[in-house]
Amino acid sequence: MLFSAQKAFDHIRVMAKEIGIRPGGSPEERKAAEYVARQFRSYGLETSVEPFRVEIPGKVEAAIHVEGLGELKTRPVAATASGTVTGELVFVESGEEVFLPKTKPGQIFLLYGELGAPDKYEPLMRAKPAAIVLVENARFIEPRLTKLSNEKRDAFGAVPTVRIAFEDGDRILRKGLKKAKVVVKVSHEWRTSQNVWGVLRGTEKPWEEIVVGGHYDSVWGGYGAQDNAAGAAVAMELARVFAHRGSKRTLRFATFGCEELGLRGSTAHVENLRKAHAKHVAKKKGKAWKLDWSPLERVRLMLNVDLQGLLFGDNYCPVGGPPELMSACKLLASEMGPAMKFDDECYSSDNAPFAHAGVPTAAFGRLGVELMWAHTPADTFDRCWKDSLAPIGHYLETFIGRWVADAKAFPFKREIPEAHAKKVKEYFKGRVFGYVEG
């Protein structure tokens, strides 16, 4: 095996520790992109940067005072609304529509968890709260800085919204406290983010391409070591391995920007592929049969790496593709490890836009109790475990080598099973295009 866990670990150190917090559209994210590009060039890969525009939070401030408790630690939900609200605090459980009939316009809604998909968020806005207080759904963590999707805000409106710790929500309810003051100041601005590509052209069948990628941005206020400097680092190390090893087919290695803002980087890339495909079809004359595939048709498989470096955890692989793809993933795990849990769910990461465009996908994550640190300032480099990178790195090196780089014929049909396609469609419908809440 050529995959080096130490080299991948070194990439995590640079991105999560030396560069640090790198939210989408920030100078730090750009600095990380420049680092990735330098690495790809040093491997001898065709290196390019794919820019795209994204709306990001500007200055964000928040405060909450609960009568009987005083000032609580809080963070705002960005892309909501600014304002100062004083009023009655009413608990609406998880915020679902069935919990809203007894509410009155102008109250401050206290709810557990997230604002949710449109079929939950729209009734919330119709109930006309003056403000919303979200209680964290994990214990012993500080309130996270998260974001409402721009699309949802524009479609249904927004009110000042903050997050508080689970323990503070617990105290509010157990003490029966009813009055609060919420202060939120948020702003928005347009920035440029970027995907970084390193391409190894196939020596025999360059028109057959696979994408291997992971996002390199972090959430605001979070160092994003496990999520997802580690995943990006695995993809980067695989790029080094195959630049040395070679491949019959084209391997496109990517680090995506702004995943934490709603899969913006991967979505932007797939939209570019869709537009190129439409132009290709428009120029096409005669029968549909052709040897000159469009850029979208060339992509036969997407492998995504998101959430790695956990010491304790379970390896998870959701597959969206033909039965033989699922079988290949399972058989290789049985042959060489690591143990993995497989299903056909739509994983909420950069694989999803590819599946939505008809490209088979497999995503590789490591889940466990340490996920409580994800999307918080506690997701730091010192929590990453180098030795956990080797099993997934060796697995992917073997998988890509056996079924892509060396295979005489590409073994997986370019098709998405109807059941998975439906799940992906519902996923994007439920998110109002790229909705993500941390």
Account of the 3D structure:
With 438 residues, the protein is α/β, with parallel strands linked by helices. It folds into 2 domains: 5-57 and 191-430, Aminopeptidase (3-Layer(aba) Sandwich), CATH 3.40.630; 58-188, Glucose Oxidase, domain 1 (3-Layer(bba) Sandwich). The protein is 35% helix and 27% strand. It has 12 helices and 15 strands. The protein has a 15-stranded mixed beta sheet that branches. β5, α3 and β6 form a beta-alpha-beta unit. α1 crosses α6 (225-245) and α6 packs across α11. The model is unreliable at 432-438 (pLDDT under 50).
Provide the descriptors you would attach to this structure in a database record.
15 strands; 15-stranded mixed sheet; alpha/beta; disordered C terminus; 438 residues; Aminopeptidase; Glucose Oxidase, domain 1; single chain
Give a short overview.
The chain has helices at residues 5-19, 27-42, 118-126, 150-156, 166-175, 225-245, 264-283, 295-298, 323-336, 351-356, 389-405, 418-430; strands at residues 46-66, 70-72, 74-78, 83-91, 108-112, 131-135, 146-147, 161-164, 179-200, 205-215, 249-256, 299-305, 314-320, 340-343, 361-367. It has 438 residues and is of the alpha/beta class.
Structural class: alpha/beta
Helix % is 25-40%
**Whole-angstrom Rg:** 23 Å
Instruction: Count the beta strands.
Output: 15
Please indicate the count of domains.
2
Strand percentage lies at 25-35%
Instruction: Give the C-level CATH assignment of the largest domain.
Output: Alpha Beta
> Ranges with pLDDT <50 over ≥5 residues?
432-438
Query: How many strands, which pairing sense, and closed or not: the largest β-sheet?
Result: 15 strands, mixed
